[in-house]
Amino acid sequence: MNLSIAEENYVKAIYKLQEGDTAVTTNGLAYELDTKPASVTDMAKKLKEKQLIDYEKYKGITLTAEGRKTALQIVRRHRLWECFLVDKLAFSWEEVHELAEELEHVRSEKLTDRLSEYLGNPTVDPHGDPIPDAHGRMAKPRPQTSLDQANAKRLVVTAVTDQSVALLAFLNAKGIRLGTQLEIVAHYEYDNSIEIKMKHQPALTISEQVAKNIMVRPV
């Protein structure tokens, strides 16, 4: 099925916002895509005609089985390109999202499969998000928790939930990225900040807000 870039962006955004069978509102989708609700309504009608979504006015939007399949293909391409940019071209993790937003629209299935093979068929992207395989399946994630809730002292970073450029750049500057091993030195009750220590680096203190967005598991 040939879709425009705009149509693909809508399908991916619906996938991102939809949880289970919960319908996505036109206002919520408009906010996500920074557009007007009227524009969302117009696009919803087009996507319904292509049998990618179920949509009734005032009842919200849900992906059909074909729509979910399409969304997972786009997500797969996006996250594989992020891996390529970080692992092979040495981009930092805060730089790759916007580039992958463009590259994800290259629809060659053969290219996508070759890219995955070239990268060693990764199961997570540089931010820790799961990568769908060619059949739309994602590996079951291992248990993880946010750093502010971690009980173990020795931990490894497994994902980042806030993927804003500002936070990713901050973490990169502090030497914190996917796979980084760290040790909790102290919790400070006054402001809930956490002092952490990484190998061969001095201890540093991070705020509760930052810690809430770093996912970890025990080493």
TrEMBL record:
UniProt name for this protein: Transcriptional regulator MntR
Keyword set, alphabetical order: DNA-binding, Transcription, Transcription regulation
Entry-linked PANTHER family: IRON (METAL) DEPENDENT REPRESSOR, DTXR FAMILY, IRON-DEPENDENT TRANSCRIPTIONAL REGULATOR
GO molecular function: DNA binding; DNA-binding transcription factor activity; protein dimerization activity; transition metal ion binding
Lineage of producing organism: Bacteria, Pseudomonadati, Bacteroidota, Chitinophagia, Chitinophagales
Keyword Transcription appears in the UniProt entry: yes
Family of this protein: Belongs to the DtxR/MntR family.
Record function comment: In the presence of manganese, represses expression of mntH and mntS. Up-regulates expression of mntP.
UniProt cross-references to InterPro entries, sorted A to Z: DtxR_MntR_Metal-Reg (IPR050536), Fe-transptr_FeoA-like (IPR007167), Fe_dep_repressor (IPR001367), Fe_dep_repressor_sf (IPR036421), FeoA_core_dom (IPR038157), HTH_DTXR (IPR022687), Iron_dep_repressor (IPR022689), WH-like_DNA-bd_sf (IPR036388)
Domain (HTH dtxR-type) ranges: 1-64
Organism (species): Chitinophaga eiseniae
